[in-house]
Specification:
Blueprint (H helix, E strand, L loop, with lengths): L1 H16 L5 H25 L1 H5 L2 H17 L2 H6 L4 H4 L15 H13 L4 H22 L6
Length: 148
């Protein structure tokens, strides 16, 4: 059931990006969210919240469900003034990764990818600093010479 719900909500994500709207799409989104929310609630009850979040795949499921909730309930932004919820919506692209439960190799690959992100911050910081440095030098050197 969850695999089918993941497939259907992923197709709904594609249709949303193609500016296809309608009541059927909203119903599909809501049904998928209910399936995922029930899964998360049952796992939290079974494992306990901290034990549930100790597994990386459960963290992924939890973040996908929270992102799905932020997409379905945009009215929360209007009443609470939490415009930052729009940033959480970008996690929606992680929904197809929920299907990895059956493939341990794919789970290992994804966990390795997520664990490498914090380690790459130093490399990204140095790259941005170099781009800014050479950008400033280029502006100072060429100061309008390319317009003539």
């Amino acid at each position: 059931i969850l695999l089918m719900a993941t497939l259907v909500t992923t197709l709904a994500l594609i249709l949303t990006n193609l500016d296809f709207t309608g009541d059927v799409l909203l119903f599909v989104e809501l049904a998928g969210f209910c399936c995922f929310a029930v899964e998360v609630i049952l796992k939290v009850i079974a494992y306990g919240f901290m034990n549930y979040l100790s597994d990386a795949m459960n963290c992924l499921d939890f973040s996908c469900t929270v992102a799905h909730a932020c997409i379905l309930f945009p009215e929360v932004e209007k009443y609470t003034g939490l415009g930052a919820l729009q940033a959480v919506r970008c996690l929606r692209f992680l929904q197809p990764l929920r299907t990895m439960r059956g493939s341990p190799q794919l789970q290992l690959l994804t966990e390795t990818l997520f664990l490498s992100v914090p380690l790459m911050t130093n490399v990204v910081t140095v790259a941005i600093a170099l781009m800014v440095f050479f950008g400033v030098i280029g502006v100072q050197l060429f100061r309008g010479l390319l317009l003539n």
